[in-house]
């Protein structure tokens, strides 16, 4: 079973190819870290997969009607600003819109669970626009969780979070995958990606250049070639350890 299937997905901006024949299947139980340097095409890939950008090729999600798509995949966009002066729990309840129970969404258990999972229960009555950047980020993750979908697509979900919150979100996503859901998250923290993801997909110049288990993907050669860095890589007692060390000249 696949939760998302991309076949030959391509997108150009003018004459410049930004996505080049992307093939990618994501199944239940996978926590896929989508990696790549700035401008590699990660956001474009996630948005094209969801049908939010016109692309050639095929995306199983983009092919769905909007309601069905919203029940199949929740999306956490890269932008984190909350513009609406609404209570936190009302923002989180927006995740229920595609479900038939949307009439009383604030009382739905998925909303309570999402607030609790993101440590937001005490903030649930606060005007969301008054929260700090990291708190707002957690509210938007909670909104995506409340959508209660088989697949979660998150664009840089841990950007701007403090270390405990970032690890908490990665643990949460790994837990969703262990429950049989699928998660695809673009990430710049290669260390957390290596420790928590079941699979890493590396984009460079709009192409997938590596795809596999973290230890197989994060090689010295790939780090130098794609990211232009040298790093310390080791097997720790409870997972891989990754410490970026310095910039290397790219080939
Ligand atoms: N609206 C646009 N018009 C022209 N070029 C664009 C547009 N949106 C994105 N691009 C270009 O497409 C490429 C991929 O952008 P994208 O945002 O997908 O990268 P990314 O991997 O998510 O980067 P980052 O890590 O910086 O968020 C970049 O070179 C970017 O400049």
Automatic annotation (TrEMBL):
UniProt entry keywords in alphabetical sequence: ATP-binding, Nucleotide-binding
Keyword ATP-binding: yes
Gene3D superfamilies assigned: P-loop containing nucleotide triphosphate hydrolases
Tagged with keyword Nucleotide-binding: yes
One of the record's GO molecular function terms: ATP binding
CDD domains tied to this protein: ABC_Iron-Siderophores_B12_Hemin
Xref: InterPro entries: AAA+_ATPase, ABC_transporter-like_ATP-bd, ABC_transporter-like_CS, P-loop_NTPase
PROSITE patterns per UniProt: ABC_TRANSPORTER_1, ABC_TRANSPORTER_2
Pfam families cross-referenced by the UniProt entry: ABC_tran (PF00005)
Domain ABC transporter: 4-230
Highest taxon, organism lineage: Bacteria
Name of the featured protein: ABC transporter ATP-binding protein
Source lineage: Bacteria, Pseudomonadati, Pseudomonadota, Alphaproteobacteria, Rhodobacterales
């Amino acid at each position: 079973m696949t939760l998302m299937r991309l076949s030959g997905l391509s997108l150009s901006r003018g004459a410049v190819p930004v996505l080049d024949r992307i093939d990618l299947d994501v199944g239940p139980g996978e926590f896929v870290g989508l990696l790549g340097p700035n401008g590699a095409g990660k956001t474009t890939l996630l948005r094209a997969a969801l049908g939010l950008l016109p692309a050639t090729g095929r995306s199983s999600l983009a092919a769905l009607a909007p309601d069905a798509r919203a029940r199949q995949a929740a999306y956490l966009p890269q932008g984190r600003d909350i513009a609406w002066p609404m209570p936190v729990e009302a923002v989180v309840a927006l995740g229920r819109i595609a479900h038939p129970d949307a009439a009383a969404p604030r009382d739905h258990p998925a909303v309570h669970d999402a607030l609790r999972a993101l440590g937001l229960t005490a903030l649930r009555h606060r005007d969301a626009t008054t929260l700090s950047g990291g708190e707002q980020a957690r509210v938007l993750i909670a909104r995506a969780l409340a959508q209660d979908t088989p697949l979660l697509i998150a664009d840089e979900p841990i950007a701007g979070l403090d270390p405990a919150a970032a690890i908490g979100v990665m643990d949460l996503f790994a837990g969703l995958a262990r429950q049989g859901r699928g998660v695809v998250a673009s990430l710049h923290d290669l260390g957390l990606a290596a420790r928590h993801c079941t699979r890493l997909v590396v984009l460079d110049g709009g192409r997938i250049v590596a795809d596999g288990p973290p230890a197989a993907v994060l090689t010295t050669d790939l780090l130098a070639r794609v990211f232009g860095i040298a790093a310390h890589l080791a097997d720790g007692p409870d997972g891989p350890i990754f410490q970026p060390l310095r910039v290397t000249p790219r080939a």
